[in-house]
Amino acid sequence: MIRRKIIFSLVSLVAMFALAACTGKDDAAPKGDSSSNMMEGHEGMNHAGTSDVPEGLKEALNQTYPVGSKAIIHADHMPGMNEAEATISGAFDTTVYTITYTPLNGGEKVENHKWVIHEEIENATNDSYQAGDEVIINAEHMEGMDDVTATIDSAEETTVYMVDYQDTETGEDVTYHKWVTESELSQVE
């Protein structure tokens, strides 16, 4: 357990230095204006996150992809993600949700956004939410998402992963992307 925490800390530290070295590169570009941020309602998706996780989120005990391991992403939450090789930067057991909401910044309605986790719901109950439930989101995956009222579209208990990868379209480094489910990953061959 201690070894795993040390490895996670080292991976986090290296990623933080790499991210700091890249700061300023795209500062002049307006958010949501880059082609790497555009995908069916995913304009403004945050490419680089932090290693911070919501309070109460529990590290997965039997994750298929341990922190520091490599996996191939099979998801298109944003352009340049599908088929990218990822490095696992976190693995957690929780309930993941797809949600529909209208951004607080006045953007277009976002349907079936993947993924928000149970710990990112304000005043979350102990039980998982069901399709049709309305919740308030405490996450900033996209512009205008934090503090928005959303409708749950689906719910699934699974292991979710925080991943680092290189955008296959732009070459941009994406760090601490939250979240990819276990079913959206496969072993590197």
Automatic annotation (TrEMBL):
Record has Signal as a keyword: yes
PROSITE patterns reported in the protein's UniProt record: PROKAR_LIPOPROTEIN
Transmembrane segments: none
Region Disordered, residue ranges: 26-52
Signal peptide residues on this chain, from the entry's feature table: 1-20
Domain named DUF1541: residues: 67-118, 132-182
Domain of life of the organism encoding this protein: Bacteria
Keyword annotations: Signal
Protein name as annotated: YdhK family protein
Source lineage: Bacteria, Bacillati, Bacillota, Bacilli, Bacillales
